[in-house]
Every structure is written in structure tokens, then in C-alpha cells.
Design brief:
Bound molecules: 6-hydroxyuridine-5'-phosphate
Strand content: 5-15%
Pathway: Pyrimidine metabolism; UMP biosynthesis via de novo pathway; UMP from orotate: step 1/2; Pyrimidine metabolism; UMP biosynthesis via de novo pathway; UMP from orotate: step 2/2
Order of helices and strands: HHEHEHEHEHEHEEHEHH
Organism: Polypedilum vanderplanki (Sleeping chironomid midge)
EC number: 2.4.2.10, 4.1.1.23
Keywords: Decarboxylase, Glycosyltransferase, Lyase, Multifunctional enzyme, Pyrimidine biosynthesis, Transferase
Number of strands: 8
Largest sheet: 8 strands, parallel, barrel
GO biological process, one term: 'de novo' UMP biosynthetic process
Amino acid sequence: TRLQMTFSSRAEIAKNEAAKELFKIMEAKKSNLCLAADVTKSDEILNLAESLGPFICVLKTHVDIVEDFSENFVNSLKALAKKHNFMIMEDRKFADIGNTVALQFSKGIYKISEWCDLVTAHSLPGDGLLKGLKEVIKNKEKIGIFMLTEMSSDGHLMSQDYSNKTMQMIANYSDIVAGIVAQSSQFTENQPELIQLTPGCKLDETGDNLGQKYNTPEFLVKEKGADIAVVGRGIIESKNPVEVAKTYRERLWNSYEERIKY
Ligand code: BMP
């Protein structure tokens, strides 16, 4: 099954170009760690990208929390992504009609489609959303979409039925969908070409006081099918982000190596 396959063998069967690239980066850097760079100054993001870049496969942004956004910032981030060989994911979580998301994706201050490699979206509005994003991606086939099927937060409303229907919806968009954001394997078929990205990861499983729930790297990769785990505050709020990022990387990668041996 998908859980026993290596990332490099999955790179060969990936249908989306960004997913293919990501699998290769993961294998080359031996990293399935995604950093949630949830800080509000562009310099802080760039500093994280420079110091942690060597240990991550993806740097995830929420560009709408950046207080001093500029085109320079984006260009610098892109340069660091190239230097350290990681991909940039904008966690935009699109959730509107196709026409609106196409505009949100390509226009406005952020012009997300001009700099991201990966972007997240909700299936809630139906597949017109995917059609809208696809129109923007048309000439940039290296962008991959991650669809949310299940969240890490307490009391989220994504039922198993919602998740199953999301999986059915994306089946028709395998050229633009790179994977899913989920807490457990939501694949109705094996689908090793798709990547499972799982947020809510911390060395000490607890939560925050706003509904976030955490699990350990081992549990998420070995028991829950995560290919990539997202870590934000577990790293960026630690005393020594570089050392802690190395620990997450090692524990996530070892879990993957154990998983493929079963
Ligand atoms: P932290 O590790 O600091 O809790 O950050 C988790 C990150 O993952 C945040 O950027 C959040 O927006 C994102 N995320 C999440 O926590 N749960 C989900 O279900 C989906 C997410 O994108």
C-alpha cells in the first residue's frame, strides 16, 4: 500500500508536477518536515527560511498575517527556497466560488499564484473552486493544490462523509491536486500519488487554549499515515529553533523509514 512505498517511487507515479517535485525533495533532503512560519514580520520569515531551510521540505506561509508584505519579500523567500531546496506553500484555504477564488489566487496585493508552489483549499463550495484555480494554474503546471478533508482543531465540522466526498471530488483533478490536509488516511483507494500533509504535531502532545490538538511525529507518520507533518510553534517558539527543527526532522524521517519497512 501507499504506506510501504518510498517517496522516490511515489515521485514516479505522481500526476501533479509539484507533487512529483516535492517527493524528490523529501527524498533528497531526507526530510518530511513542513515548517509553519507563522510570524508576522517578513524578516522573521526570511530568517526562519535561512536558518531552518536546510532541514525542511516545505515552508508554509499565511501571507495575510505579514504586516510588511512586499514584492521584495516574496523574491527573497523564493531565492531562499531555491538555495535550500524547499517548496513554498501558501496556506490560503480558499473557500469561495470559482470566479472569486481565481481572483483571490492571482490578483490583489499578494498575487499568490506568482510565487507559491503549493496552496491549500476547502472543498466546501464544490468543484467550481477547483475549476477556478485550474484556470489560473493553466500556464504554471508546477503548482499543486492541497485539499482539506479533516482538521486538527477540536469540534471541526468535517465529517467522514464530507471527507469521502472531497476524495471523490479531487479524483477528477489529479493534474492539479498534489494531496490532502488531513489527520488520518482519508484515501478511499490507495492513491500513493497523493501526499498526506498533517498539521498538529508537537513533541509533547497537548494542545493550545484555542482548540488546536497535537500528536507526536511517530504517531502521525506510523499510525495516521502522514507523509509530511506540519510544525509551527513547536519549533518557532522553542529556545533553539535550529536544534529543535533537527530533532523533528530526524524523528519524522525515522518514522517514515520504519513505516516503509513493515
Ligand atoms: P502550530 O504547529 O503552531 O499549531 O501550527 C499549525 C499550522 O497548521 C497553522 O499554520 C495552522 O493554520 C495549520 N493547520 C492546522 O493547524 N490544522 C489544520 O487542520 C490545518 C492547518 O492548515
